[in-house]
Design goal:
Helices cover 34% and strands 24% of the residues. By secondary structure, the protein is α+β, with helices and mostly antiparallel strands.
């Protein structure tokens, strides 16, 4: 006796949830957009339950837009500023960047040197390196004063930088 598994042509939202890795509520919101694109042959509703044809499952798949980081910054000090100092510093600096460009995002990590001196690394979507250096110097960091040192570089290897960030700590994303 040969038993075959029935191939489903239509999926309910509950069935679709694990396939596209979205929660039921997210699928309900997305269905409003999808129904405008397609006719009743591939998506329909019966007694308050949606049915979606397998040919349009791609419409429900999770879409993640990668963050385009532009600049990589390292700030270190010979003075032994603690981790809390760097946390306050980066949050204040981030707020200042958000005033300039509301869409700015920032990811940072605070790590320690071999001599246990904390320092800061961060990636930002803010693209103007000259303006960023100016803001750092105006308000926070003066090179060689109090032993502060900063480096601002363009990002060219985001995956490598993420890997570097994760070597000691998990990076913190500021949105």
């Amino acid at each position: 006796m040969n038993i075959q598994c029935p191939i489903t042509e239509y999926y309910s939202l509950t069935d679709l949830s694990p396939i596209v890795n979205l929660k039921y509520r997210q699928l309900q919101k997305r269905i409003k957009l999808v129904i405008k694109k397609h006719n009743n042959d591939v998506i329909y509703k019966v007694s308050n339950k949606w049915y979606i044809h397998k040919s349009i499952i791609y419409e429900f798949k999770r879409i993640r837009n990668p963050i385009e980081y532009s600049l990589y910054v390292t700030i270190a000090s010979r003075n032994k500023f603690d981790v809390e100092y760097w946390r306050v510093f980066i949050n204040l600096f981030y707020k200042e960047l958000k005033h300039i460009d509301n869409k700015t995002r920032l990811k940072y990590v605070i790590e320690s040197t071999e001599r246990e001196i904390p320092h800061l690394h961060f990636l930002t979507t803010y693209a103007n390196a000259k303006e960023l250096r100016k803001k750092l110097e105006e308000h926070y960091v003066t090179t060689n004063e109090n032993g502060m040192n900063k480096k601002v570089k363009s990002v060219w290897d985001v995956k490598g930088l993420h890997k570097y960030f994760r070597k000691q700590n998990k990076p913190v994303l500021l949105k």
